[in-house]
Amino acid sequence: HNGHVYLLNKMRENGATHIIAVMSGNFTQRGEPAVLSKWARTKAALKCGADVVIELPLHCSVSSAERFALGGVHILNSLGCVDELFFGAECEDITKLLSISEFLESNEAIEKIKNNMKGGINYPVAIEKAVESAMGTELAEIIKTPNNILAIEYIKALKRCSSSIAPKSIARIGPEHDSGITWNKFASASFIRSSLIKGWDFSEFIPDECNTIIKRELALARAPVDIKNIERATIIKLRTMSTDEIKTLPDVAEGIENRIKQASDEFSSYNEIADAVKTKRYTHARIRRILLCALLGITSEMQSILPEYIRILGFNSNGKAVLSAINKNCPYPIITRPAQEIRLLDDTQKSLLTKEIISGNIYNAMMPKINKGFDDYTIGCIVQKQ
Predict the structure, then answer these.
(1) pTM of this prediction?
(2) Radius of gyration of the chain (CA)
(3) Is the dihedral of CA 309, 333, 168, 202 positive or negative?
(4) How far apart (Å, rounded) are the C-alpha atoms in residues 35 and 229?
(5) What are 168's strand-pairing partners?
């Protein structure tokens, strides 16, 4: 959308000569399917300023902000050719973001967060209160907004990876995250997704090139992909799982598996189950991710694994130089044709890529018109000609 284009243009203004986008595939950190397929979104990214698009593996993209950020940063750090990591955030002052991230890595912060959570509050609020008590109200306000939280997680991930990549914050403009308010041709991604599902006109909030791609996807009945299309499948899956099996899902703890099992047996919609399971400690987003992981077969053990292959979804002529550098410097297999190259992976990484491919089959069955499976085998790496 126009906010993404603004970020890409700002990166160029700040000296970026080649831009790599690490993008979630068909399922997202919201605990929902992407409204458009990863292939359509790759085309849009390349049309609007990215030079290379790399897929963030499924087990990272449907995880918490911490694991989501670590997966993406680990991939970028392994490429051996990335100098700067740009992200959009409400706070442009990188020094403040750095100081908060440094504090959150300290023993003092870990202890404060743990004590706060003992009082029954969820993790984001526990972090906010820890920062406020140690660093004051001003910095605590920074950590209240979702893009600042993710920015801090990126910075923490860079440190964990011992990376020399420099973090760069670009101030977001326009409406807040998840806002239903539009401003000067800018709208939140959630507003655009909702408009696409409802059939409303949202064309002024996205570039013309993306409008063309979306119209084609709509005409072919490949979009919009709506979470409602997996309600029955998710409930069926949960009703066939034991509480011990639910316990293996990511972020399931403190007996929440019992609430999930009971709710899935009692209620008949995704939202009803999420509402029934929600507690002060478990946000709606966290619950939706758990439900999605149940359907896709993602376990807590899988989410502890760092990605050790690079899945290239697309590139343009400027991106060829990037791919050349990646091939030269990256220690991991480069995947552009999974059918042939999956044999390059060890058993663990092969199982993760296989899970990705199977999830693509599930995603295609959620389209307005059920689409055939195994896109990952039949759709080649997208090459954008300029």
Answers:
(1) 0.95
(2) 20
(3) negative
(4) 11
(5) 86
